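Appendix B, example 12.
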Amino acid sequence: MIDVTLKVNEVFYSIQGESTFAGLPCVFVRLTGCNLRCSYCDTSYAYVEGDEWSLEDLLERVASYGCGLVEITGGEPLLQEATPALVRRLLRTGYRVLVETNGSINIDPLDRKCVRIVDFKCPSSGEAERMDWDNWRRMGPEDQAKFVISGREDYDFAANALKRLCGAAKPPFPVLFSPVFGAMEFRTLAEWILEDGLPVRLQLQLHKII
């Protein structure tokens, strides 16, 4: 048997704060490493910090929490070759698996039975030019797209992206507009969404609010 290892920044149990799963208890596996340097990043400690874990030890730790929902995040999980293997093992064990990825890497290696949450970067991130927009067509109805918004420029960018990608049709999967915590008023973003009648979900970072 091949010894599969991953570099892990942290494993913890908390309330899911984002996505359509917000509010649910969840085990988080934060993997080390990221290829982007977003201006508002709140997990820069995961760029390099972490320890090598065997797949079996990681699965044992996840199981110790007795929770059926697991999110693999980062950093950027798709930088690690073993991430798809971790996803497959979790799915086979019966977990509901979420993978949050930064939108710059092809998501196809991930099993389509997991929920792929793709964060398409807006201009204020400083990384908008590095997005792989082909991921939009790779996504299925169980996946989710996220746009993190710090002001009007980001909002217009995200709204125009929706128009370009969907036309007048409803998006084929949930689309989340998330204000940058501390930089964008929740109410203002809600008003813009309502004014334009966008078919999106306002997403607040529940874990930061509580």
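The radius of gyration is 17 Å. The CA atoms of residues 17 and 81 lie 27 Å apart.
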